Hints:
Layout: H1 10-13, E1 22-29, H2 32-41, H3 43-46, E2 52-54, E3 61-70, H4 75-87, E4 92-102, E5 110-117, H5 119-135, E6 149-154, H6 160-172, E7 179-183, E8 185-192, E9 199-207
Antiparallel strand pairs: 1-3, 1-8, 2-6, 4-5, 4-7, 5-6, 8-9
Helix pairs in contact: 4-5
Amino acid sequence: MLTEALRIPYSYTRSMSDQPPLRLFLAISLPEPVRLSLIAATDPLRGTTADVRWARADALHLTLVFLGARPSEQVDEIAEAAGAACTDARPFSLTVAGRGCFPSPARARVLWAGLKGETSVLTSFQETILAALVAARLAEPGERFAPHLTMGRVRETTSSPARADLGRQWLALPAPAPTPVLVREVHLINSVLGPGGSRYTTLRSLPLGGS
């Protein structure tokens, strides 16, 4: 069910400049109070296990399309194609609610928070953005979109019984109060990998029509 990263065709990378490539994705950012509430709701489990790499509050976002390594020259092209799709869309509302595990609680590898509200609008919107990028030869069709917020990743060294126990504990945590989020824009973000985790920089903000 995980949203798969799009495979980057050879033609995208062979013309890269001598500058280090950017690692790009398009995402919906969450208001800070929502992010802090999500992090606080995981505190009871964070303090009891070293088997999970937890997401930081500033790293929580809803990925729409992962573009991967791209030359900086493509930033404007990507923003133009995705921005046109955003202009044709209207703002919509989502609510962060529910929890789950990929691929299953018994074999937990990813601990995620779910989304409710206008999820059908979200899915259609993501498909429209991806189609615009494909038409511009900036992406290829991807796997089925499964909207979620990754809260933590279980370490590869974790045993099977420990994974199942983590899955049970994750689902049993008290849920934070559902908070509506009005989606008004999409961000084109660059991710820089580092020893403390990825650091994100917003390169472009693409407003939805009517927002």
